[in-house]
Design a protein that fits this description.
- By secondary structure, the chain is of the alpha/beta class.
- It is 37% helix and 15% strand.
- Strands 1-3-2-4-5-6-7 form a seven-stranded mixed sheet, sandwiched between helices.
- Helix 3 packs across helix 4.
């Protein structure tokens, strides 16, 4: 019973849909001479995580935008809100635009590109997680009341869509980071998660259109703030269109549902 209560507490209070755009702009240069970094956070979005993201990326030679695009009303409304954000802040006036997308953010960006074209978008890094990508279906099937109370229709809509790769015709540089560890919530629902099929951590099963990828020992919650682990790889990709030669190309050998020991961070 204590475990159930702790999971519900985690569900409601460790995650939030933060309702404010976070922006850093170097006003000394014209947009046409600059690069914009847009971070599309997922359900793990929070004020604290946005602060960590902004602090890490704001002095890296890019203007930084972390928009409030997720809408409780629906996934379609979230796509519309993002399109309005793109226009209102005149993102298309930048020389180049880079994206970091956390699961649902990747879906929204892909739909935007399919509908409106790539514009000046040049590079995208997707955060993908074989385990966390089942969290929406778990929430809808196992905790429907709490899921609707917390997230509205958004998660219900997302639970019904399939994440698809962009077509090659867009000529984008695409990187993929594959999480190898399940979150506490998904560890609790490990058995239930297998009802949706076996897991695959192979890149070809996750995204067929990519330029480079690597595996990380981080779980989905840590992906928002552990840039001491993944930050240099992200920056290297934005500079070179590939990850470093040290980026891990194979899955870690631990069980993703067993909480790993901290020493993995020193060998990752």
């Amino acid at each position: 019973m204590k475990q159930v209560i702790s999971i519900l507490f985690l569900f409601f209070f460790s995650l939030e849909i933060y309702s404010k755009d976070v922006i850093y702009i170097d006003s000394s240069k014209d947009k046409s001479n600059k690069i914009a970094l847009v971070i599309l956070n997922g359900i793990g979005d929070s004020k604290k995580n946005r602060k960590v993201q902004l602090n890490y990326f704001k002095d890296r030679g890019m203007d930084v935008y972390i928009p409030n695009y997720k809408q409780r009303s629906s996934l379609d409304e979230s796509l519309y809100k993002f399109s309005v954000f793109f226009d209102d802040y005149e993102i298309d006036k930048y020389n180049e635009v880079y994206f970091i997308c956390y699961i649902i953010g990747g879906y929204v960006l892909n739909r935007y590109i399919e509908l409106y074209g790539k514009k000046n978008i040049k590079k995208i890094i997707y955060d993908r997680s074989p385990t966390q990508e089942r969290a929406a279906r778990i929430g809808v099937d196992k905790l429907p009341f709490f899921t609707r109370l917390k997230y509205g229709q958004l998660v219900f809509d997302f639970s019904e869509v399939k994440l698809k790769s962009l077509e090659n015709k867009y000529d984008l540089k695409i990187g993929v980071i594959i999480e190898n560890q399940a979150t506490r919530l998904m560890r609790f629902f490990e058995k239930s998660s297998y009802e949706y099929g076996e897991y695959s951590f192979e890149i070809e099963q996750i995204d067929r259109n990519y330029d480079d990828y690597f595996h990380t020992w981080l779980d989905h919650e840590l992906m928002y703030r552990r840039f001491d682990v993944i930050g240099e790889e992200i920056l290297f990709f934005f500079q070179n269109g590939m990850f470093t030669k040290n980026a891990k190309k194979s899955k870690y050998d631990f069980d993703p549902f067993k909480k790993i020991r901290l020493w993995y961070q020193f060998i990752s």
